[in-house]
Design goal:
Layout lengths: L19 H27 L5 E2 L3 H11 L3 H13 L5 H7 L1 E2 L2 H5 L2 H6 L27 H13 L8 H11 L4 E4 L4 E4 L7
Antiparallel strand pairs: 1-2, 3-4
Helix pairs in contact: 1-3, 3-4
């Protein structure tokens, strides 16, 4: 039986000279910043594809406990790291995922010995354009036509994640689109303005 492909590491280099980011974290958050920096690197090294997903409260609470930090302080430190572009800002702000491209590059020799490239930056979850930039006002006819065209383009492989599906259902429940992801069927609902 062949070994499973592993995209994690059992170690990471701990350099003796602090990076600017590490120095700032230590200055702003004291020992908590220092400890968090290295706990985060330990977790990233051992995580699948060197990416952590903090989109669930349980994951945040669990990691905060491992770091011996209050949950809110941990989130504040991660927000600071995103602002400084230490962690990928786009992944953190859009989905609470932690990825440090420079850190992953430290594992090039390891992945070279495994005969493959280092893991790539995770892709962000795709959303229907209709769910982006939700506003309280009613859609225009152009919006409706654009969304109808986009829905026709959606294939089974573009199925929405359950949380995104729920977001769309709430935002557009009384307006115009119903999406059944399980059967990949799409139906247009006529909006009744008489109610």
């Amino acid at each position: 039986m062949a070994r499973s492909i592993r995209n994690s590491a059992d170690y990471f280099p701990h350099f003796v000279q602090p990076t600017d980011a590490q120095a700032i974290l230590e200055y702003e958050y004291g020992n908590d910043g220092y400890v968090f920096w290295f706990r985060l690197q330990e977790a990233l090294a051992g995580a699948e594809s060197h990416c952590l997903d903090f989109s669930h409260n349980l994951t945040i609470e669990s990691f905060a406990i491992k770091c011996r930090l209050e949950r809110q302080l941990m989130i504040t430190i991660l927000d600071t790291m995103a602002r400084m572009d230490v962690i990928d800002r786009e992944l953190w702000e859009s989905g609470r995922k932690v990825w440090i491209g420079e850190f992953v590059q430290l594992f090039k020799p390891l992945y070279k010995s495994r005969g493959r490239d280092v893991p790539k930056k995770p892709r962000m979850e795709r959303r229907l354009q209709a769910c982006e930039g939700l506003q309280d006002d009613k859609p225009t006819q152009a919006d409706l036509e654009h969304d109808e065209t986009r829905i026709e383009e959606v294939s089974e492989s573009d199925a929405l994640q359950p949380a995104i599906q729920a977001e769309c259902e709430v935002a557009y429940s009384d307006q115009y689109v119903t999406i059944d992801v399980l059967t990949s069927s799409y139906a247009r609902i006529e909006h009744d303005d008489t109610s």
